[in-house]
UniProtKB/TrEMBL annotation:
The gene is RPGRIP1. InterPro entries: C2_domain_sf, RPGRIP1_C, RPGRIP1_fam. It comes from Nothobranchius kadleci. This is Retinitis pigmentosa GTPase regulator interacting protein 1. It comes from the Eukaryota. GO terms for cellular component: photoreceptor connecting cilium. One of its GO terms (biological process) is retinal rod cell development. Residues 1-51 form the RPGRIP1 C-terminal domain.
Length: 85
C-alpha cells in the first residue's frame, strides 16, 4: 500500500479517507486487503517545496552576481619603478 506524495504536491489536495489496496510483495501482486487512510500534508509539502526551490534560486543569483563582479573588475598590476632605465 502506498500514497503518491508527488500527486499530493501537484494537486494541492489532502487525501481524506481514501481506500487503498494492500498488495502482496511477491510477483503476483495479489490484493490481500484494503486500508482507509487520510493524509493532511498538502500545505506543508507545498511550503517545503517552495522553500527548497527559493534557496536554489538564491544560490544561482548569488553565483551570477559573483561571476559578474569578477568580470567587471579591472586588473591592476603593481610594479616598482627602477631609476636605472
Amino acid at each position: 500500500a502506498f500514497l503518491d506524495l508527488q500527486e499530493l504536491l501537484l494537486t494541492g489536495n489532502d487525501v481524506i479517507e481514501q481506500q487503498i489496496d494492500i498488495v502482496s510483495v511477491d510477483e503476483d501482486k495479489e490484493v490481500i486487503g484494503t486500508l482507509k487512510v487520510s493524509l493532511e500534508a498538502a500545505k506543508v509539502l507545498t511550503g517545503i517545496y517552495q522553500e527548497f526551490h527559493q534557496k536554489d534560486n538564491g544560490k544561482t543569483e548569488d553565483e551570477e552576481e559573483e561571476k559578474k563582479k569578477k568580470t567587471d573588475q579591472i586588473q591592476l598590476l603593481d610594479y616598482e619603478e627602477d631609476g636605472d632605465f
